[in-house]
Amino acid sequence: MSKRGKRSGLQQSHRAGEICATKAAVHPFVFLRHSDHGLAWVEAGQPEKGRPGPRRTEIDWDKVPMDKPYGEVIDWICKKTGLGERQAKARFKEHCQQQGGQNDTAKGGDEPF
Asked: Which of 12, 21, 32, 84 is geometrically suited to a Cys-Cys bond with 41, CB 3.0 to 4.6 A?
């Protein structure tokens, strides 16, 4: 089954509707993979269970310099954990909300929530 029709350069052995219609009666899912040749999807078996995604990076909040301005706190979190700025801001905001709003802007920071 080709994804892009004639542009893919593949010969279609089945129409997409035929595959879906015949498989739907037996299996509720149709699994596809990228073709080795051309721009296409081809029918594939059920994928193996993959390993779980990356674990959430832990932040030791006792070591975070909360007396610094907001921007410096975010930079510190990024450097120490390897998180991106956006993720660091989200985690900092989440932490402050769990603390009941205390330290939500660090030292009178520049980005209040």
From this structure: 32
